[in-house]
Design a protein that fits this description.
mainly alpha, MetI-like fold, flat
Length: 323
């Protein structure tokens, strides 16, 4: 008909309504949906970790920055005044703080023993040596006790006229002043702390044993290897990453969670021999009313913890490369 518009045949390529046009529109829609899905997938981890990051920034990082800043101010008559490094110089001259740092070095020396105890118990449980059922039944019991309860119990047991010295006297060993001898008391407190906390490390070791290749143990048994050789040549190399993790976390626990025992068992004595940085901080803040000096000591403790954390990363990476 004259004047009528030309008909557009469906299905002709390049024309409106043809399959190419429909296909292109579908590709565009699919491409847009894929980009949106990819963008959502990239953003999802950040959304999930955002609450934790905000909590850390608000409750950890910001107070840490304030504390470091406060450590450069004065106490008492110089409250609020900038004093530079005076607080840190005073810490360096304070024999109690030097003793606290020396005890940190002692903890480092005792760390292998603190890790070996739960490691050996976990090995006995895993290898089902005689008595492993007893270990499995009671190993976690001390971890549920409050440090105050633990300290009070051992104060009674380790008293000069307590049951432990009574038992030692029956076998001809003289009484030991466990809580009054400056050369013995720190070892006593560390031993009590290890007893009270080794359950957590033992759980980590048992989790590590779940990844151990049992065929290696079977081969060692067929070769007639002794228990000591099996532990040295099979267990320790196979659990290198677990051991590295427990080493560092145990050290961190010693530096940050012994306050309760120290407060109940020794109160820093005798003669300040059981001071640790966290106890020194509490004394300066809570009893001496010197918050700026306590902030300086806290900053030093943070630096120590930072070094321990970096050592943790190094140990774990080295263990990973060895595996």
């Amino acid at each position: 008909m004259k004047g009528s518009s030309p008909l557009v045949r469906p299905g002709v390529p390049g024309r409106a309504g043809g399959p190419d046009t429909t296909r292109q529109a579908g590709h565009r829609a699919t491409g847009t949906g894929s980009r949106r899905a990819a963008r959502s997938e990239r953003l999802a981890p950040y959304v999930l970790v955002a609450p934790a990051v905000l909590i850390i920034l608000g409750l950890r990082l910001y107070p840490l920055i304030l504390g470091v800043n406060f450590s450069f101010t004065g106490d008492g008559d110089r409250n609020g005044m900038v004093v530079g490094l005076d607080n840190y110089l005073e810490l360096a001259d304070d024999p109690l703080f030097r003793t606290a740092l020396g005890n940190v070095g002692l903890l480092v020396l005792l760390l292998p023993v603190a890790v070996a105890i739960p490691g050996l118990l976990a090995t006995f449980i895993y290898l089902r040596v005689p008595g492993h059922r007893v270990f499995r039944s009671v190993y976690f019991f001390p971890a549920v006790l409050s440090p105050v309860i633990v300290g009070s119990i051992f104060n009674l047991m380790l008293a000069f006229d307590g049951p432990l010295n009574t038992v030692l006297g029956t076998i001809g060993i003289g009484p030991v002043d466990w809580l009054g001898d400056p050369g013995v008391t720190m070892f006593t407190v560390v031993g009590v702390h290890v007893w009270a906390t080794f359950g957590m490390a033992l759980v980590v070791f048992l989790a590590g044993f779940s990844t151990l290749d049992s065929s290696l143990l079977d081969a060692a048994q067929m070769d007639g290897a002794s228990l000591a050789r099996t532990i040295w040549h099979v267990v320790i190399p196979s659990l290198s990453r677990t051991i590295a993790f427990v080493l560092v976390t145990t050290m961190i626990g010693m530096l940050t969670s012994m306050f309760g025992l120290l407060y109940v068992m020794t109160s820093g004595g005798p003669e300040g021999s059981t001071y640790l940085p966290e106890y020194y901080i509490w004394i300066q803040q809570g009893q001496m009313n010197r918050p700026a000096l306590a902030s300086a000591a806290s900053t030093v403790l943070f630096l120590i913890m930072l070094v321990v954390g970096l050592a943790q990363v190094g140990l774990l990476r080295r263990a990973g490369r060895q595996d």
